[in-house]
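Give me structure tokens for this 152-residue protein.
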Amino acid sequence: MLKRILLFLVINFSALAIGGFFTKAGVNSDWYANANKAPWTPPGYMFGIAWSTIMICFAIYMASIYPKYENKKTLITLFAIQWILNVSWNPIFFYFHQTVLGLFTIIALTVIVGIFLFKNYGLLKLKSLWIAPYFLWLLIATSLNAYIVFMN
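Here you go.
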């Protein structure tokens, strides 16, 4: 189990590192500074804390579900799609300023994480809660992205 957790931690945090490269430049840009942002937008430091916590929890979730999931190919495919959507949102939104495409991307990511959470509850029972912070954060992030789409 520990080896699987470490593997998923490396994969998850590589996504954060790649995404962070685009996020840092975007957050400090005039475009983002001048955008109308949702009043419930958390302070900047919260994003690093939230994403680090989420990726640790998600690694535990993936390490827990992997041995129980019958179709490993489907599981890894869903995980890979989730990873690609997670990483791609940052340049789409912050680098290319494509807020509508970013919204569709984050909605797709939220759906995938929702599938992990709700479809696999029967396999993991309460261990499914390891992915709940990811799902809840994505709901908030989707609302923040949508606010920027509709208010700018």
